[in-house]
Amino acid sequence: MEKIYNNKIITIFFLIQPILDILTSLLNIPASIGILFRGAFVLYALIYCFIKGNKITYIYLAISSIYLLTNLIVHAHTIDGFSVGTQMNSLIHLTYFPVLLLFFYKYFTNIKGKLLDNKTFILNALIIGLSLVLSMATKTNLCSYEKCIMHGTTGWFNSANEYGIILVFLLSISMTYMMKSKSVLPVISYLLTNAFMILIGTKTSYIAMLFINIGYVLFYIVSCFIDKKRIKKYYKFNILFLIMGIAAIVFFPMTPLKYNIDLRAQDGIEKVVDNKTEEKIDVHISTEELNNNYQEIIVDNQGEIKDSQVKTVAFNGRDEFLAYNKDLYKKSSLFDKFFGITNQHKEYEHLTEMDLFDILIFHGIFAVILDLIVPLFLIVKIIIGLIKKMDLLFDSDVALPGMTLFVFLLVLWFAGHVLLQPAVSIYLAYLLVYLYKKVGVKEWKKQV
To answer: Would you say residue 396 lies in a domain?
Structure first.
């Protein structure tokens, strides 16, 4: 058993992920290879859960299987042009997170199941960061947005949203490891990760980078009042974190994100004019006006930019898709509410890209329950553990991952690309179990 299920195998899987994504992009390897690779890991995880599971585990897996089978059979009879492959791919995306979370929980709470060495994620960060440098040096880097309409680069990776969130996790691990290691590698991974989060050009990665850097400095200042020994121990690192955060604020006008915000705001203003006049008017709004408060700008006296337009710009149109899809959901049958609406109800194919809403609308109430019951269990246990051991709040091994978990939860609610994206959800699954282990929660007699 230990020859098949051990930290080396899991470490190899984490390290292969970014390499496989790079090869998929550079060599045009079919995306199905990545799906098969991740599907194989899900099977690997499921076998372990069956072997090491107990009554509650088996009940959970049985109910999940019944849901998935019912979903597949019913949708095969209700969706026009039904594709088994497409539906299976959708269900793999849905089940990837809860299965891996259950696996990590069962494996790492085992007596011999120690957490992965943080070097694993430092290597991950170095692979991703150095690939960005090489791609830009060779001018083979990809644009973050389709047709390069907006600024930003993903290096050799295809998804800006996915890797923007993965970098949040890798940043916190780099910061944690560099404060407790004399190696220069975590410092390099820290700098490369920050650079990537700036150059990628998305709001999520940029705001998260500022939050993690400056947020931890504030945490350090507060913790120094409680334990004065921390002042000498970590002040050099926190100066670096503070400089990075301040630099990101000062040089923000020169970043890809600033350009993208201005472009989206300009586009939003033109849409308001289009809606009023039913024709496109060439409007130029200065950067200074946009910076002041473009909610209050009036364009050619045709109409005022309302909060709803600003919200659409901020959420990249997700609020519009959500409003439409929520209306579809309300009008759907009771069965669809529990198992997800089918494409015969939709006039166009587009998710809201907000994980919780997408799961509810397109996979149903049962899917929401099955997806969230295990993470909610762990989050409650983590909170209980922290209440019992308040001093852990001032441990960087807990504080930084805790801040990262907070960012992940915000992103899955407002921006998506977390629960339904295997490349990202595996990090969230590990992060939850990581915190669970670090807090040192005692097991319930009847664990999941």
So the answer is: yes
Q: What stretches of 180-317 show up as alpha helix (H) in DSSP?
A: 185-199, 203-226, 229-250, 256-277, 287-293, 307-314
Coil/strand/helix, residue 38? helix
pLDDT in tens, 38-90: 889 999 999 999 999 889 999 999 999 999 998 888 878 777 777 777 777 78
pLDDT, residue 276, reads 44
Q: Does residue 296 sit within a domain?
A: no
- Into how many domains does the chain fold? 1
Query: Distance between terminal CA atoms of the chain?
Result: 21
Tokens of residue 240, six digits: 């670096």
Domain residue limits at 392 = 1-114+321-448
Other C-beta atoms closer than 10 Å to the C-beta of 162 total 19
Using the structure block, give the residue that is written with the tokens 């099955």.
370
Whether residue 47 is contained in a domain is answered as yes
Identify whether the C-beta of residue 75 lies closer than 8 Å to the C-beta of residue 363: no
Comparing CA positions, the residue from 206, 239, 15 lying closest to residue 126 is 15
CA angle, 13 then 167 then 196, to 5°: 120
Query: For residue range 277-295, what is the model confidence (pLDDT) as tens digits?
Result: 443 334 444 444 444 443 4
**Among 444, 443, 440, 448, which Cα is nearest to 387's?**
440
Would you say residue 231 lies in a domain? no
Write phi, then psi, for 442 (nearest 5 degrees): -75, 140
Residue 392's CB is within 10 A of a number of other CB atoms, namely 18
CA 267 – CA 277 distance, rounded (Å): 15
**CB of 374 within 8 A of CB of 386?**
no
How far apart (Å, rounded) are the C-alpha atoms in residues 346 and 153?
Answer: 33
Query: For residue 213, what are the CA distances in angstroms to 79, 123, 392, 415?
Result: 47, 21, 19, 21
For residue 216, which of 260, 261, 183, 168 has the smallest C-alpha distance? Answer: 168
* Residue 298 three-state SS: strand
Overall residue count recorded for the chain in this entry: 448
Q: What is the pLDDT of residues 97-146, one digit of tens each?
A: 999 999 999 999 886 668 999 999 999 999 999 999 999 999 999 998 87
